[in-house]
Design a protein that fits this description.
- By secondary structure, the chain is mostly helical.
- The chain has a domain of about 70 residues.
- The protein is about 75% helix and about 0% strand.
- It is built from 20 helices and no strands.
């Protein structure tokens, strides 16, 4: 009676109980000691206890033990952080996952691949909940130790900012971390900027991204050209076309079609034909949609002589297939018959 074991004896007993899966018994021993004001500051035992609870899907108990550790100034093992955050992400307990992930980043330094992947999934989850500030804070903490953060993470942050239409904050984030999202995500941002504001705002955004290494592709230019045409600013659209060609990029056919349609809207009929010649010279043959745009434009301008010429071009190019038309649309005249 009254005999007290050494601390190392308690540590040995608790460790053995955890190893054989008797978590409740180990848990009871550790907290009974706390009640007797015997502090067992062995972070490994507590970490393994948390890991055991996580494996048994006893989330609340694992978080309770974790908070007890933190309250006593103990730092968990890296694996403990990983399994706990991973579970919280999988069951979408976002706030808890974020809180513990911040501790992991503060105390673990460089992350391994598994840790980094878990945090990437957390960032995606946080962005989906609209908590962009928390997501970008995690990324900023990760980058100094793990610069190879997946571009998918930056895409999700960009998409979240797009939803909020907070383009200034998005730009400041990418300038700060000197990283940009993928071309696909950037094109979505540019299109959203044009839709919400104007091409001028989108152009400014693009210049800032180019300063930190982003390269425009033919789709990016196509978006800027398309919205410039919609705004009736054909000078701007032709400037973007010139820049695009100077960089060796080949416009998509829908970009050419948009340009032709835009020229008709401002009654520049002769330039529309120049665009047609330009696209053929650069190896982009016009398709049925191109000729539809041209015929519609010439009809509105009452230039039926040019309409007739275009239809002959279509016939010579094999784009007029009366037999296929009759099969798919029996009893109906093709649009070129109606035009003439």
């Amino acid at each position: 009676m009254g005999f007290k074991n050494l601390l190392c004896s308690y540590e040995f007993m608790a460790s053995l109980l955890v190893q054989v899966g008797m978590l409740r018994e180990a848990d009871g021993l550790l907290f009974d000691l706390e009640g007797e004001e015997i502090s067992l500051d062995n972070h490994e035992i507590f970490s393994y206890l948390i890991e055991g609870y996580v494996n048994m899907k006893e989330l609340e108990r694992s978080v309770f033990v974790y908070d007890f550790m933190r309250g006593h100034g103990m730092i968990s093992l890296r694996l403990c952080y990983h399994v706990l955050v991973d579970l919280l992400v999988r069951i979408q307990r976002t706030e808890l996952a974020f809180r513990i992930s911040v501790d992991m980043l503060d105390f673990c330094g460089k992350l391994n691949c598994a840790n980094a992947k878990t945090l990437e999934n957390l960032v995606i989850l946080i962005c989906g909940n609209g908590k962009i500030l928390e997501a970008r804070n995690i990324v900023k903490k990760v980058l100094p130790f793990n610069p190879e953060v997946s571009s998918f993470v930056f895409d999700e942050i960009a998409f979240a900012y797009c939803e909020k239409k907070d383009f200034n904050d998005l730009l400041s984030f990418f300038v700060e971390v000197k990283r940009v999202q993928s071309v696909v995500a950037t094109n979505r941002v540019i299109n959203s900027l044009c839709s919400s504001y104007n091409v001028k705002m989108a152009g400014f955004f693009m210049q800032e991204l180019e300063n930190i290494g982003f390269k425009l592709d033919e789709v990016t230019y196509g978006i800027l050209i398309g919205w410039s045409c919609r705004e009736g600013n054909m000078k701007n659209s032709m400037n973007y076309l010139s820049l695009m060609l100077s960089e060796g990029l080949v416009p998509r056919i829908y970009t050419y079609n948009t340009l032709i349609s835009g020229l008709f809207k401002v009654v520049l009929l002769e330039h529309a034909r120049h665009i047609l010649n330009e696209m053929m010279d650069r190896g982009t043959p016009p398709d049925i949609s191109t000729f539809r745009v041209l015929i519609a434009g010439y009809c509105r301008s009452r230039r039926f002589d040019l309409v007739k010429s275009l239809i002959h071009e279509m016939d010579n190019g094999g784009l007029l297939n009366f037999r296929q038309w009759r099969i798919h649309f029996p009893g109906r005249l093709p649009f070129w018959d109606l035009t003439l």
